């Protein structure tokens, strides 16, 4: 009888890839986790219980066939494992690095519930696809037949790129328009290199270019090119802009110099640290934490990116203010632990009341307590009267989340319907908007969300665009 390759969670403990020491990694922007060696990846994959109802798969937005590629990895069949992984996920090596697995697949692993420690799904996923790239198994789109239909995609972030990949593989002519000078969107300029090294993103953009997708960079719709021009040039348009409008702070002194937006800060850092670009605001110190006392306001993943970036830039101190406690923060607990290891101090149950100095010198902080649940079920923070204190700061970074820009106004397209939150009104799954031939995917529909959801939306939308093209062709042929 063949030796059982799986169900080894009772004998083998959970083992993450080696993590670089915090005192070393907090000085550079390299990824903090090493990759698995072949034997270690097989060992960790073999811990999967192959359960009859895989909650890991059902709690993955892409419904990846996780048990299947874990079994194939455990038995050394890596090429087949990659083929299954990429069949449902356009960018598995990116999701393996940045998905909050502790809240999704790994957080719902059956053996975790039994006390054995979750399977390291994200790390194995990263290993599979990194191996695929190294072995040359990842290839550009090579459609059997080129179609005449053309699609314009506005936004080169994960949703737009996922849709572009699916459409090119079907032979559709694709042009991607983006405001930045490189593809990737927030994958490139929003997420720091210590979580996602930029060559990982750039090789995907190149793969799309090699597969026939055309990119138009430095293109601001409404300025460089009108929305109507893009509609006229293509048979369909997919809006995948993401949400870039930062939520603002209020209170006395909120307009002081030295209080900056997280997106501006992270973009400057990624340009300077990962691409070697000359960034005047970084060189001047405006968007550089070196030698400064830094306070970051917010508790999401963007706030974690900011505090960990500030440490690497050489800040003298980095503190994070969040109005709820640790258990109620929206960011990844894994990222919070990494930040603490690297020297970040978290001030839970605190919020800014105001700021001192024309150029910020201190944050006036008020302490909070958790009261009754709000409409979402989370306990609402309440101010503790008389608890104010000052937190010295030379640089304050606002990481309060993002909202949609006014696309109908910016693009001169009042007929493009939006919801009361400013997101584009689009059909669930298909992405169809109220305008004929115009679709929308990702955060511009959902609001600020996860990269994996944008990938799911892009793939789903591409499938429906193809269905609509086939339907129109059938009607024309009658």
Automatic annotation (TrEMBL):
Keywords attached to this entry: 4Fe-4S, Iron, Iron-sulfur, Metal-binding, Oxidoreductase
Instruction: Please name the SUPFAM superfamilies in this protein's record.
Output: alpha-helical ferredoxin (SSF46548), Nucleotide-binding domain (SSF51971)
Q: Which residues form the FAD/NAD(P)-binding domain?
A: 151-458
Q: Which residues form the Dihydroprymidine dehydrogenase domain?
A: 25-136
A molecular function (GO) term? metal ion binding
- Where on the tree of life does the source sit, at the highest rank? Bacteria
Q: What protein am I looking at?
A: NAD(P)H-dependent glutamate synthase small subunit/glutamate synthase small subunit-like protein
């Amino acid at each position: 009888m063949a030796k059982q390759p799986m169900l080894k969670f009772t004998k083998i403990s959970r083992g993450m890839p080696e993590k670089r020491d915090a005192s070393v990694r907090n000085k550079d922007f390299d990824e903090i986790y090493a990759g698995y060696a072949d034997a270690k990846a097989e060992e960790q994959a073999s811990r999967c219980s192959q359960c009859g109802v895989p909650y890991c798969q059902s709690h993955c937005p892409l419904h990846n066939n996780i048990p299947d590629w874990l079994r194939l990895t455990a038995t050394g069949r890596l090429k087949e494992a990659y083929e299954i992984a990429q069949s449902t996920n356009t960018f598995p090596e990116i999701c393996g690095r940045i998905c909050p697995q502790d809240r999704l697949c790994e957080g719902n692993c059956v053996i975790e519930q039994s006390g054995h420690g979750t399977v390291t799904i994200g790390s194995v996923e990263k290993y599979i696809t990194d191996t695929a790239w190294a072995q040359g198994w990842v290839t550009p789109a090579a459609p059997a037949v080129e179609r005449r239909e053309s699609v314009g995609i506005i936004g080169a972030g994960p949703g737009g790129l996922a849709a572009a990949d699916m459409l090119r593989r079907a032979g559709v002519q694709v042009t991607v328009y983006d405001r930045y000078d490189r593809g990737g969107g927030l994958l490139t300029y929003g997420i720091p290199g210590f979580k996602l090294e930029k060559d990982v993103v750039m090789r995907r953009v190149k793969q799309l270019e090699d597969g026939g997708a055309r990119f138009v960079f430095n293109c601001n719709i409404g300025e460089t090119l009108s929305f109507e021009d893009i509609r006229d040039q293509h048979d369909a348009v997919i809006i995948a802009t993401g949400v870039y409008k930062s939520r603002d702070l209020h209170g006395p002194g909120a307009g002081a110099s030295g209080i900056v937006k997280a997106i501006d800060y992270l973009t400057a850092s990624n340009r300077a640290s990962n691409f070697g670009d000359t960034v005047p605001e970084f060189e001047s110190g405006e968007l550089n934490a070196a030698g400064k006392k830094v306070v970051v306001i917010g508790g999401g993943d963007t706030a974690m990116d900011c505090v960990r970036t500030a440490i690497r830039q050489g800040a003298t101190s980095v503190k994070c203010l969040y109005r709820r406690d640790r258990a109620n923060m929206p960011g990844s607990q894994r990222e919070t632990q990494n930040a603490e290891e690297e020297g970040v101090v978290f001030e839970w149950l605190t919020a800014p009341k105001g700021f001192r100095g024309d150029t910020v010198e201190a944050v006036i902080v008020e302490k909070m307590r958790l009261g009754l649940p709000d409409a979402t079920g989370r306990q609402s923070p309440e101010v503790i009267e008389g608890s104010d204190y000052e937190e010295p700061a030379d640089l304050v970074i606002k990481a309060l989340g993002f909202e949609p820009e006014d696309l109908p106004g910016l693009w001169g397209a009042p007929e493009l319907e939006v919801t009361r939150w400013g997101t584009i009104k689009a059909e669930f799954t298909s992405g169809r908007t109220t305008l004929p031939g115009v679709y929308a995917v990702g955060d511009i529909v959902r609001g600020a969300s996860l990269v994996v959801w944008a990938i799911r939306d892009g793939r789903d939308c591409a499938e429906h665009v193809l269905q609509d093209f086939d339907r129109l062709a059938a009607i024309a042929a009658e």
